Amino acid sequence: MANRYEMATPEPPPSPRSPSSDVERAEQCDAAGAHADAVGHLAAGARKHDVEAMTRLGKRLLVGDRSPCLPKDGAGLIAEASARGGAEAAAVLAVLYAVGASRGHGVQAGLQSLIAAAERGWPAAQAQLNVLAAGPSEDATGNGPSPPSPGNDWRALGQAIDLAAWQAPPAATDLSGNPLVRSYPKFASPAMCRWFIDNARGRLSRALVYEAISREVMAKPTRTNTAAVFNLVATDFLFVLAQLRMSACLGVPLRQFEAVTVLHYDEGEEITEHYDFVDPNLPSYAQEIAEQGDRIVTFLVYLNDDYQGGETAFPRLDISHKGSRGEGIFFVNSDHGRADTRTLHAGRTPVGGEKWRVSQFVRDRALLKQRRRATIGISPCRVRGMWYALHRYFTNPGLLQASGVPVVR
Predict the structure, then answer these.
(1) Which residues of 134-170 are buried (b: 16+ CB within 10 A; e: fewer)?
(2) Which pick of 142, 191, 208, 318 has the fewest CB atoms within 10 Å?
(3) Mean pLDDT across the stretch 355-373?
(4) Is 221 exposed, middle or buried (0-12, 13-18, 19+ CB in 10 A)?
(5) What gap in Å lies between CA 223 and CA 145, rounded to an integer?
(6) Could you tell me if 22 and 33 are in contact, meaning their C-beta atoms sit under 8 angstroms apart?
(7) What is the pLDDT of residue 285?
(8) pLDDT tens digits for 93-145?
């Protein structure tokens, strides 16, 4: 039973079509570092309704990846590519719907879009449906309810998924009442833990520390582990469901969540004692809080436990907690604007194996100003506005440099 999910492999995707000349030229430009030209070629392909070009351009515009940051236009391109049959676009749209980026859509609409991606042959969507179909109640040995056999009927598999169960807070116990440190022993299923690890493994880089005085992130000897950060394009429906379950546990809306991060520790790697809140003794404290808000809660999910040591240690609370696979804990760093120095903590090094964690920081305010949500799509007016905005970037080197896009001609 333990390897039940390894056996439930997704079916091979259909043979991919050769990329269009616009997509090929974009790839060549990116390889040469000419990212502005690459965006231009993708835009040309998108105007011809090339689904792959629309998907790639949409993803870049969503987060400003080697391009101007035009999230509304990026989302519109993704929606249009999905409407034209794009498999990857449907999987990305599932995330946008699940996080509430479109009026009238939500988690259920996100699941339907994920099903569409699976039906179109997107392997990651098929794998996520297999994980979700087993339900969140699978125990630590992998002996949960058996998922329905998917065959080719991804819609039947998806329709049987109980989204309410995935978003409900599980049973909890308190490790400390004041400050609050709360544990959820069955927060994530083993299959979900494996999914997070597998998706993070190829994305790891040195974990950085935010230095509030210089307002920069940098590598420091106090933190030697690696990490993978999942932004709106890198994340997926399963990651968003985990965040929504955290939101239910905390009673805090998803818009106050930072990008989710997966942490990895090899033997000898650690993060020494530190706080997660903004240090109130910093000279720039008031400005930092005004602009970014404070990290009021940290939520961790333990993705494996096959090692010794590796505890999350709170020396001032006399807590040293290793955690078990699938367990989630959160602790309150700051309450009503008052930092709690008792939450000083460290991530100890593992012995005899590697250690994996999900780390989620929660702020005391929305990270982005709330705007009136619109239904995702591209209107003729928005199309004209997007091409105008892209044209300004292509023809103004100053704007390109300011956005971090190298100008290579």
Answers:
(1) bbbebebebebeebeebeeebeebbeebebeebeebb
(2) 318
(3) 80
(4) exposed
(5) 40
(6) no
(7) 73
(8) 999 999 999 888 999 999 999 999 999 999 999 999 999 999 886 665 555 55
Residue 236 per-residue DSSP state: -
Q: Which residue has the tokens 């969503």?
A: 62
237 in Cβ contact with 88 (< 8 Å): no
In eight-state DSSP terms, residue 20 is P
List, as one string, the DSSP characters of 260-282. EEEEEE-TT--EEEE-SSPPTTS
Give the DSSP letter string of 43-111.
HHHHHTT-HHHHHHHHHHHHHTTTS---HHHHHHHHHHHHHTT-HHHHHHHHHHHHTT-STT--HHHHH
- Tokens 């009503």 map to which residue? 336
| CA dist list (Å): 20 to 28, 45, 54, 315 | 12, 8, 12, 58
Q: What is the CATH number of domain 169-363?
A: 2.60.120.620
Cα(182)–Cα(92) distance, integer angstroms: 32
The candidate with the shortest Cα–Cα distance to 291, out of 218, 368, 216, is: 368
Q: 322, 356 in Cβ contact below 8 A?
A: no
Q: How far apart are alpha carbons 408 and 309 in whole angstroms?
A: 50
The per-residue DSSP string of 303-341 comes to ----SEE--EEETTTTEEE---TT-EEEEE-EETTEE-G
Reported pTM: 0.86
Going by C-alpha positions, the residue among 192, 195, 240 that lies closest to residue 95 is 240
pLDDT reading at 409 higher than 50: no
Does 168 have pLDDT greater than 70?
yes
